[in-house]
Structures are given as C-alpha cells and as structure tokens.
Design goal:
mainly alpha
C-alpha cells in the first residue's frame, strides 16, 4: 500500500525532516547507487532501482521511524538506519506488487516492470529487499541486532503472507470480509508497524510492541477501506479485492457504503487512540495520520 495523505498531515518534527535526506542516501548506497551522477552508465538492474526510488513517495514509514526515534532519544544514525531499512522493504514490496498486478504506472510514472520488464522488476525488488537487511546490519548497538532482525523478518513474512492471500481467490462470500481485514492487516499493516517496533525495541521499550502492532494494523485497515471507497469503479473493472464491492454483493449500494465508512472510521479512530498511548509520544505521527485520513469520511 502506497500512502497518499494531505500535506498538513505530514508534519513530523523538524529534526525528523532534517534526517530524511540521509535516509535517501542510505537507500541508494544500499543498492549500489551511492554516486547518482553515474546512474545512466549502470546496468539495467541498478537503473531500475534508481528509477523506482527516484519517483518519490511520501516516505511515511521513514518518517514514522525518524519521529519516534527522535522522541525516544535513540541516536540519529540509528534512527536513519531503521528508517532506510523499512523504506527499502516497502519499496521492494511495491515493485513486486506492481509485477503481480501488471501495473503500468505508479505515482504518475512507469512502473519498473513496465519500463524495464518483468525479469528486471523481480530482481530489483529482490535487491531492495536484500539491501534493507544490509542497511540494518550497520546498526550501531550490535547487541540489539538479533532482536531487530527477528522483528524485521516477522514483519516481512507477514507482508508476504498478506500479499499471497490478496492474490488467492476467496473460498466463498462468507469468509470474504474477515479475509479482507486479514489481508489489509498483513499486507499493509506489517510494514507500517515495523518502524515503530524497531524504534521501540531499540529504545528498550519492548512492552509497547503489541500496542504498536495493533495501532498500525488498525490504521492500515481503515486506510485501505477509504481507498476502496474512492477506487470502487476502478477496482470493479480490474476485479481487485475491494471491501465496498464485497459489501455491495450482500446489501444495497447506499447501505454498503455507509457500512464501509463506519468500519473505516472505527479502525482509524482505534489507530489514533492506540498510537497516542505509545511511550513518550512515540506514536504521535501515526496518530496524526489516522486523524487526517478520517477527516474526509
């Protein structure tokens, strides 16, 4: 899931924003693109990675890590390491998602599979995925690495399970809505919870990990439902999994949309409240994002 939020929602601390260019540099270096001036002469795989990363995005997962890291007082270099790790994982998932969906565009530009072919796209996603672990290996407090690596693998595995479920036909209408919620929590929630999990673990606050997980998964579900309401005509034409379309198969259009909006509000409000309870305000950015997403419902 690629997040698109109003600019007023994207207001973490100034220090978080100051650290973001370092995250970008770490991401490029992780895949062999430390010297941007030479990108045009690099092999197709590296040009594909540069193309995807250069298209941009709001770097929400990086900002979640940076804002929480600043709040909890972990060293800037380690906050940058965590932020680059989660963004590389997320971008790897986007490349693979576009490959599975045969998407031609993302963020107004050709996708990697459209511009470079399916084979290069598969390899580019793999390289970003591997690069994430390479970045995390540079975390300064080496005694914490086993815990951080385990959390990273757990979230990556959950995201893969969610994506797999998303492309698996449902067994019937009866399990469609629970399956939808599980897909959204896994596919999107896993890599939204990871920045908070890594920072909390790094800051010695492991007791807060379950709360971070619940907050991030509630946000992911609520966000996805809002997306589904907005994208229902497009998803109907493409045959994509969409909660509003599932609800319409069992109820009138107006009733289905009201139910979808109610579910979205409920999950986003849950995310806002739970995130606000994370230690020392470390979830304030996620709480603000949930509030912003709910504002238009």
């Amino acid at each position: 899931m690629s997040l698109s939020l109003p600019s007023e929602a994207l207001a973490p601390s100034e220090l978080s924003l100051d650290l973001l260019p370092q995250v970008e540099r770490r991401m490029l270096a992780a895949v062999g693109l430390a010297h941007a001036a030479t990108i045009a002469t690099r092999p197709a795989l590296l040009r594909a990675c540069a193309h995807h990363l250069g298209v941009g995005g709001q770097r929400v997962r990086a900002l979640l890590a940076l804002d929480a890291g600043v709040t909890l007082g972990i060293p800037d270099v380690d906050a940058v390491t965590i932020a680059a790790t989660v963004e590389l994982l997320h971008n790897a998932s986007l490349i693979h998602d576009d490959l599975q969906d045969r998407s031609a565009q993302r963020r107004g530009a050709p996708t990697v599979q459209s511009a470079f072919g399916a084979g290069i796209a598969l390899c580019a996603g793999d390289l970003l995925l591997s690069g994430a672990y390479g970045v995390l290996a540079g975390y300064s407090a080496t005694a914490s690495l086993p815990r951080l690596l385990a959390l990273t693998h757990s979230a990556t595995a959950d995201a893969a399970q969610g994506q797999s479920a998303d492309v698996t036909p449902p067994s019937g209408l009866g399990d469609a809505v629970p399956r939808y919620l599980a897909v959204a929590a896994g596919k999107s929630g896993a890599l939204l919870r990871l920045p908070l999990e890594l920072v909390l673990a790094a800051a010695g606050r492991p007791e807060a990990l379950p709360l971070a997980r619940r907050a991030a998964e509630a946000f992911a579900i609520g966000y996805q439902i809002v997306d589904d309401i907005e994208d229902a005509p497009k998803d109907a034409a493409a045959g994509s999994l969409n909660l509003l379309l599932l609800l319409r198969s069992a109820a009138a259009h107006s009733e289905a949309e009201a139910t979808a909006r109610q579910l979205a509000r409920r999950h986003l409000e849950t995310a806002r409240v739970l995130a606000a309870e994370l230690p020392q305000g470390s979830g304030r950015y996620l709480s603000r994002l949930a509030q912003a997403r709910a504002a238009g419902l």
